[in-house]
Each structure stands twice: as C-alpha cells, then as structure tokens.
Amino acid sequence: MESSDHLRADMIAALIEQGSISSPEVEAAFAAVPREKFAPEAALPAVYSARDVVVTKRDASGRATSSVSAPWLQAEMLESARLYRGAKVLEIGSGGYNAALIAEIVGDEGLVVTVDIDPFVTERARRFLAETGYPRVKVVLGDAEHAAEEHAPEGGFDAILVTVGVWDVPWGHLLAPRGRMVVPLRFSTVSRSFAFARAGGHFIGLDPTVCGFVAMQGAGAHPDQVAVLAEGAVKLTLEEGPALNVAALDQALTADRTELWTGVTVAHGESFDSMNLWIATADERLGMIWRDPARDCGLIEPAMRWYCPALIASDSFAYLAIRELPRADEAEERRWEFGVCGYGRAGAKLAQQLHDHVQLWDRDWREHPGPDFTLHPADVAVPVPPVGRIFRKRHTQLEMTWA
User: What is the pLDDT of residues 11-28, one digit of tens each?
Assistant: First the structure.
C-alpha cells in the first residue's frame, strides 16, 4: 500500500489541477496536516481521495451525522474565506481536520474556534488536534446557534466557515466589518456554498457551489419534508409547501405517467446548474427526487443521480429526465435531450409546467451568467425583485435576482 505522504501529495496535485487549490497558503496547509489522523477508521486511499467524504458517525437509521468533508470542497471553502496570517476564525461544525488546516494558515498569532453540538465529535476533535500539534485550537461543545457568542474576539471574527448544512445564517453579527462567511446554505432543498461578504447592512453572496454536508442539529435544524416511496427505492424532498401524502405519492409512482420531451439538449460535460436556479426562481414547488439504484428496478429515470429537480404537490410530482439522441456517425457530438415525467392526479399539469420552465430557461437565461444573491436580515423590508425570488428564513432572507 502507498504511504500517507505519497497519497497526500497525489491528492494535492489533483486539487491543484482541478482548480480547488489556487494559493500557496492552502497548498501548504494540505501538505502539513496528516488527514489520516482525523479519520483513523478509514483506509488510506479513501482518506486521500480528492472527491470523497469520510463518514465518522451515523445515527440509528444509518444517516451520517458527522464526517470529514471531501478535500475538494474543503479547499474551495478555504480559498473563498481568504484567510491570512493572524486571522481570527470561527468554524461551525467540528471534526478537527478542517480546523487544523485553518490553524496552519492563520499561524500561532491567529485564533481558531471550532464549535460542535455532539460531544463525540468535540472529544475526537480535541484529542486529534492535540496529537497532531494543534492544541491552540479552541474546541467548544455547544449548539452553534448561540454557543460562539462568548468566544467572539473584540471586533469580531475575520472569517466564519460553516461545515454543516444550514438553512439559515445567524452568525453575521459575529463577523468583522471586512470579514467573510463561507456557508453551505440550503434553499429549495439544495445546499450551495456561498462566500458572504458584508456590504453595508447586508451580505453579497459570491461563488455559489452545489455541495452536500451533514445537516445542522439543535436550534438551527430545519429538516425538509421527505416522502420515501417504493420501500426506499425513490425519495422526494420538498422544503416548504403542503404536507406530502406519502401513500398517494407511492401509489402514483406505479400508475400511468405523463412523458414530455423539451427539445432542449446538452453536451457531455456542459453545465446546466443555472436551470435548477431558474426553476427555483419560477416555482415554489421545486424539490428534488432521489433514486436508489440498488432498489429502483427501473421505476424512474432521473436526469441526474444527485439533486435532480422535481415539482412536487401533496399527491403528485414531475421530475426532469434525459435521453441520449441518435447520431448520424461516430464523429458527431453526443448530445442528450431533457424530458419530463409526471405522476399522480396532477402529474400531467406538473409535467407541462416543468417542461415550460426548462424551455424558458433555454430561451432566455441559459447564456446568462446566473443570478445574484444577497443575504438580508429577517427584519428588513426587501422588495420582491422584478425577476427573482426571496427565500425567507428565521434570522435572514436570501434574495435571488436575475438581471
């Protein structure tokens, strides 16, 4: 088996090649911190896979409740935070490894406070940090909704990095005037990592990147609605809206369906994430559909394995599908066409509406760089943008605007 030093070097090379690491400071931190010391239960190749998460704890249902995040995402979040020597940093969601990377960058003159609600996590983090030479990191056991207050330095933290999936952002008042918050913020059931920079009384959201994290626990938890269908083969998630009738949705899944094809195509490797953002703008019923390939047996054929969009009503749904188009010869570019499949009493109507959203995105917004995001306090009156949407939360409201 290859040594940890060799695997670490390979991981760093991969992260540089794909653009996740772009600064010498972040590169040096990844080179210095032994990732395997923070995930001793995992094999070295898994620990040093550039794109894989290492799960360190699961609940009784098998759901991950703690993990060491994928290196590509950790690197990109560290780069977005723009850390520097002497910076004072708050991490929400512990584990130890990411805090060690931060400590390497900010140095002995900096401050790193890492908070987690789970004593299993904080005990491990404290122990692993001490064993690897980072005892100066302050590990705090508590609910991150409020536990960081007493540990904030005068003038605020220079950076706040959140390494759990959150629905809201209650930490803005702890940030220094020129600081940055890097937050995986969930809206329309999908988390996107933002770098939030203060601009007067609000924050500008930069670099939105689709990502996945263990969900927030405690006072800040805000679970989506979930409908598990066909004994776990298919799952629907919806953030808001009417209560889901799981029995009716389950029955709809095995009944007749509506199938429409949009004429909108995509090439291999071509990004279409702005489509999801447009549908989230246009329709409050946007959720996600998930397929377990080990159980599905061909019940559904979603366009994406992860984060496949669906319009979801209480007893009906429609999701985005895809099919490869025939080619005249092998030299012709391979292309795929988006379609829509609808199920249930209102499935045909939902399918037509999702079909129309895709076509409108293709016609008017596909070549657009994407929407702008602004995070406002919850008590501020924010006009609804001419083309956009406001996601209202407990402490904040996220404004998404297409201009």
Answer: 999 999 999 999 999 999
Q: Which residues contact 318 (CB under 8 A, 6 or more apart)?
A: 258, 310, 311, 340, 341, 342, 343, 347, 350, 351, 353, 354
User: Domain-by-domain residue ranges, the chain?
Assistant: 4-220, 225-365
pLDDT at 306 over 90: no
> Catalytic amino acids?
69
pLDDT in tens, 53-92: 999 989 888 888 888 999 999 999 999 999 999 999 999 9
100: its two tokens: 């060690």
For residues 226 and 16, give the distance between their C-alpha atoms in angstroms, rounded to a whole number. Answer: 37
Query: What is the pLDDT at residue 1?
Result: 62
The phi, psi pair for 323, rounded to 5°, reads -145, 145
On whether the CB atoms of residues 314 and 325 are closer than 8 A, the answer is no
Residue-wise pLDDT tens digits, 252-264: 999 999 999 999 9
Q: What's the token pair of residue 374? A: 């602004």
On whether the 4-220 domain is CATH 3.40.190.10, my answer is: no
Q: Residues with Cβ < 8 Å from 261, sequence gap 6 or more? A: 323, 337, 338, 339, 340
